[in-house]
Amino acid sequence: MQLSGRAISTVMTMLVLTACVNALEQSASPKIPAHKSAIVLFDGSDLKSFDTFFTSTGLNSDPEHVFQVESGVIHVSGKEFGYLITKKAFQNFYLRAEFKWGEGTYGTREGKARDSGILYNVQGEQKVWPRSVEFQIMEGGTGDFWMTDGAALTGKDGTRVTGPAGKAMKIDRFGKGPSENVVGFRDPVGEVEKPHGEWNVLELVTQGNDVKQYVNGKLVNEGTDPLPSSGKILFQSEGAEVYFRDIKLYPLK
Question: Does the pLDDT value for residue 5 go beyond 60?
C-alpha cells in the first residue's frame, strides 16, 4: 500500500508525539537501583504473605473483616486500628505499591484527613504502633517520614530525628505546604497525590544507609542512617477507608 504525502506527514507527527510522551514518562520515573526478581507480596488473590494485628483482638484475628480482598485489590475498611504485616523481614529493597482512598473515616479520625501508611524496618513487639520508619499516606501529607517508638532517621538537611518511646516524630516531604486536618484536604502548594479516588504509585528504596520515597514518580523525601535498618513491612488501618494493589518487593543486587 502506498501512502500519500499527507498520510506520511500524519504518521511522522504521531511518531514524534509518541516519542515525546515516552520521554516525559521516562523522565518522571525514579532512578531505581539494580535489583533481583520481584517478591509478590500481594498478587490480587489472597493475603498469605501477611499476618494481621489489631489493638482490640491481637494477632491474626480479624472478626470485623477490616482487611478483605475484593476484585483483585485489598480493601481496608479503616474501622479498627491495626495492620497487615509481612511474615518475613527485609533489608535493601525496592518496594512498589499502589493505593487510592475510599470514602469512610471512623473513630478518632472521623471527619479528619484520611490517614494510612506503610511502615518498614519494623522491629519489636506487635502493637499500635511498633518501632519503624513510616512512608506516610495521608491527605495533604503523603510522602512524609514518621519515626515511631524509638526509630530514627537523618533528614536531607542533616537533622537527626528520633521518635520517642511510644510516640512518633516526622520529617515533612519536600515542598510541602500548609496542612489542615480535615477530610478531603489537598495541599494547596505541593500536592503530589492524584485526585480523590484515583490510584497513586508509591515507591520506596532502602539501599545501605540511604532511604528514598517517591509518589507518582516524584522523589518526595530522602533520609540517611535509618534505625532500625531492616525489618518487616506493614500496611495500616488507621481510621480511613483505603485500597491497596500491586504490592511487589524487589531485593537489591
Answer: no
Q: Are residues 55 and 23 in the same domain?
A: no
Q: In which band, very low, low, confident or very high, does the pLDDT at 31 lie, cut at 50, 70 and 90?
A: confident
Cell digits for 131?
Answer: 518501632
Residues spanned by the domain of 26: 1-30
Radius of gyration in angstroms for the set of CA atoms belonging to the chain, rounded to a whole number: 20
Write the DSSP symbol of residue 108. Answer: G
> Does 158 share its domain with 174?
yes
Distance between CA atoms of 66 and 137, rounded to whole angstroms? Answer: 18
What are the DSSP calls for 209-225, one per residue? TEEEEEETTEEEEEEEE
Residues in the chain: 253
User: What is the C-alpha end-to-end distance of the chain, expressed in Å?
Assistant: 49
On whether both 14 and 106 belong to a single domain, the answer is no
> Is residue 76 within a helix (H) or strand (E), and if so which, with residue range?
strand 73-76
Dist. CA 175–CA 212, nearest whole Å: 15
Q: Write down the pTM of the prediction.
A: 0.88
DSSP per-residue codes, 146-159: EEETT-EEEETTS-
What total number of domains does the chain contain? 2
